[in-house]
Amino acid sequence: MIVARRIALLALTALAAPVMIFAGACSSSTVTSAPVPGTGEETSVGADGGEPAREAATDTGAPSPPGTCEGACKTTSLVADFGGKKRTLVRAQFGTQPGDGGVDLHTESHLGGEAACPTQSSPSPDYTLLVTPIPRGAAGRKLSDRDRVTSNFFDFKGDLGLAAASGITKAITVNLTVIAEDPSTPPKWVAIDVSAAFREGEITGHLYAEFCDSLSE
Fold it and tell me: Which domain does 191 fall in, by range?
């Protein structure tokens, strides 16, 4: 477990849930980024216009049978829209943490950074969405802020015009549908539909997150 970065992040904001995230040198992105369907790569639109960015579909179709996740279910496409400035988070990871009723999960969805599980030396992503806590074994369930689920968005690039100088904003409402979860212990992956409303905008779509021991408590 990597503690130093977590302490630094929590010092920035008391509203963030107790999870770990890693900040380093910011990588670059343009005004709009989205995955190119079928490649996992991104296409972008510059500030002066040009070819519209292509956004991956977030409709995962019929729910997967318990313990399975195929096709669109195994993709991450979370569209963040803050005052018309859009970014698409294209990869996700998760860790485990103690919960009131057992083990909970927390997910981190990113644009930018690197795909490997984070370490102290990992570069910072450009944008990150945190969602926590998600009870272990919640496949097929709908959860919301009424179930104490929280979500925080981090704009490490600082170009989305968030009100907070820290570039961190907390969701006003959060709604999740846990589509599927690996039955292993700990689970190898989890797939979730997410809709989070913030004072400055919203983030909606689907995430497929793989387990990272370095994100676990």
Answer: 4-24+32-37+54-215
pTM: 0.74
Q: To which residue do tokens 């195929």 refer? A: 70
Determine, yes or no, domain membership for 45: no
Burial (CB count within 10 angstroms: exposed 0-12, middle 13-18, buried 19+), residue 187: buried
Question: Would you say residue 48 lies in a domain?
Answer: no
Is the residue at 47 inside a domain?
no
> Is 196 part of a structural domain of the chain?
yes
Report residue 30 CA to chain centroid gap. 19
Decide: helix, strand or coil at residue 160.
coil
The tens-digit pLDDT sequence of the chain (217 residues) is 443 333 334 334 344 443 444 444 333 333 344 444 443 434 333 333 333 333 434 455 555 566 899 999 999 999 999 999 999 999 999 999 999 989 999 999 999 999 999 999 999 999 999 999 999 999 999 999 999 999 999 999 999 999 778 899 999 999 999 999 999 999 999 999 999 999 999 999 999 999 999 999 9
Number of domains present in the structure of the chain: 1
